[in-house]
Amino acid sequence: MIFALRQPAVLVGLLLGFLLGVAFRAGLQRRVGQARRSGGGRRRGRLRAVGRRRTWTPQAGWAAYLDPYGGVAALLAGVGWGARPEPARRGRATDVTMLLVALAVHGVLAAAGFAAYRAANGSLAGLQGLPVTAVLHGSFDPGTVGQSVSLGFAMINLACGLLALVPIPPMELGVVLWSRLPRSPGARRLAYRVLEEQWGIAVILLLLLLPLAGQLPVLLSLINTVADPLLARL
Questions:
Q1: Rounded mean pLDDT of the chain?
Q2: What is the dihedral of CA 13, 18, 19, 25, to 10 degrees?
Q3: Torsion angle, alpha carbons of 94, 95, 99, 104, to 10
Q4: Which DSSP helix (H) or strand (E) runs through 210?
Q5: What is the DSSP letter of 212?
Q6: Which helix (H) or strand (E) holds 216?
Q7: Would you say 152 and 144 are in contact if contact means Cβ atoms under 8 Å apart?
Q8: N or C: which end of the chain has fewer CB within 10 A?
Q9: Degrees (nearest 5) of the Cα angle 120, 124, 130?
């Protein structure tokens, strides 16, 4: 986001989109996890405590939903992630559900941003062929303030949704895949280091921040490539 300082209205959209995206994503994932835990307790015939219902406050909410490494990634690369809630019940179905929640939240928010951009007289056809990073880095001027804020909001949620599909933890698809490694001792040690000792975070940051032969970092290039056909369908 730091590169979007040259487009203040776009930067506002990026900030709003990122904060709302990670908050709704983590919040809904926690609610789903709690629901699965309480449902599991009923099926086994035992009463299980779900805990007190949490209400969102600026003091407690953002601290719970933001991840420091994901925030650094968003600041420097333009796309990041939020805190990964600990699932109440671990398992293949739970991990896949967390992935679907992430995709649904960012997909809905991105669609809302594009709808607002269209309502502000922005041309969706003009977005075809536009790299997502051109908006994330403030090198594209959408036009009016309304168009800039809404497009920034949409693009960062589109990018965060695509980032969730990277097969490296802490991204949700990465958690799904690395939790399913063979049960050999070596595989378990590797999975533990990637999932719990932040090796995956280091790899993600490297792929988001390190330019490749003078070009964009690998993950940003992949996001541009995958997003291109999606933008063509708008």
A1: 83
A2: 140
A3: 10
A4: none
A5: E
A6: strand 215-217
A7: no
A8: C
A9: 120
The whole-number pLDDT of residue 19 equals 94
What single-letter amino acid sits at 16? L
What separation in angstroms does the CA of 174 have from each of 15, 203, 229? Answer: 25, 12, 23
What's the sign of the alpha-carbon dihedral 222, 228, 229, 234?
positive
pLDDT in tens, 52-80: 334 344 445 566 788 899 999 999 999 99
Rounded to the nearest 5°, which phi and psi values hold at 39?
-65, -40
Q: Render 68-112 in DSSP notation, one character per residue.
A: HHHHHHHHHHS---B--PPPSS-SHHHHHHHHHHHHHHHHHHHHH
What's the whole-model pTM score?
Answer: 0.84
Nearest to 102 by CA among 23, 218, 188, 217: 23
User: What is the four-CA torsion angle of 179, 86, 110, 68, rounded to 10 degrees?
Assistant: -100
Comparing C-alpha atoms, which of 175, 160, 140, 147 is closest to residue 208?
160
| Closest-CA residue to 132 (of 161, 102, 156) | 156
Please report where in the chains the tokens 């809905």 appear, as a residue.
Answer: 108
Both tokens of residue 169? 């933890």
Rg for the chain (alpha carbons), in Å? 19
Q: What is the largest CA-CA distance in the chain?
A: 60
Q: What are phi and psi of 216, to 5 degrees?
A: -65, 155
Structure tokens of 163?
A: 């980032």
The whole-angstrom separation of Cα 29 and Cα 98 is 6
